[in-house]
């Protein structure tokens, strides 16, 4: 496959709706210390029934931002049946496993353990204390839910990711795409297909190395 030139420079912003702008500002600006850096006030937008709204942005470092929409006059009526899981805007059925629900989240990274623990201190002193602190593979993360019910992660690298791990990631994805294209995909089939790809490509790696 021909590799396309990589031209993007990171995240400009990710955006979410909120029914509680006061709590959202308190969490991101006053608890975490992310300054407000931009806002857009609009009297409607597009269709005639579009409500007036404010779109406001917080600086999360590296010229990246997290943003929220607050729609005036819109009641918090979005949601699922009683017992539904997820945030107040994207509900899952009560039978959906918790691990699936929590996989939908935003992660922000810091440089070191001291910074991670500082954000843990800020969160633990607030209404939104850390719910989990986990080391997994190459990163350590803390997790909580923001005032809107969105899963929120702050993470730090425990070591650099090596070029060999980048190669392994591409092998894994190629194997995954092969496996999910066939009936009854499984983790065992993924590992078997990955082993086949390693054997098939190994001859080309030595000259490149």
From TrEMBL:
SUPFAM superfamilies referenced in this protein's UniProt entry, alphabetically: Glyoxalase/Bleomycin resistance protein/Dihydroxybiphenyl dioxygenase (SSF54593)
- This one is known as VOC family protein
- Domain named VOC is located at 10-157
The lineage, from the top, is: Bacteria, Bacillati, Actinomycetota, Actinomycetes, Pseudonocardiales
To which species is this protein native?
A: Amycolatopsis ultiminotia
- One Pfam family of this protein, by short name? Glyoxalase
């Amino acid at each position: 496959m021909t590799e396309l030139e990589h031209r993007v420079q990171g995240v400009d912003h990710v955006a979410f709706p909120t029914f509680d702008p006061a709590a959202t500002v308190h969490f991101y600006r006053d608890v975490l210390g992310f300054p407000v850096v931009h806002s857009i006030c609009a009297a409607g937008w597009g269709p005639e029934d579009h409500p007036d709204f404010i779109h406001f942005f917080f600086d999360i470092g590296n010229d990246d931002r997290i943003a929220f929409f607050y729609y005036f006059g819109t009641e918090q009526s979005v949601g699922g049946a009683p017992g539904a899981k997820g945030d107040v805007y994207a509900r899952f059925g009560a039978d959906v496993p918790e691990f699936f629900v929590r996989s939908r989240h935003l992660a922000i990274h810091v440089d070191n353990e001291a910074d991670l623990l500082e954000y843990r201190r800020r969160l633990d002193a607030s209404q939104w204390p850390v719910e989990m602190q986990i080391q997994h593979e190459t990163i350590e993360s803390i997790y909580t839910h923001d005032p809107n019910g969105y899963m929120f992660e702050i993470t730090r690298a425990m070591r650099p990711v090596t070029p060999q791990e980048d190669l392994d990631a591409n092998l894994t994805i190629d194997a995954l795409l092969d496996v999910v294209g066939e009936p009854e995909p499984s983790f065992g089939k993924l590992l078997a297909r990955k082993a086949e790809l390693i054997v098939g490509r190994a001859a080309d790696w030595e000259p490149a190395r």
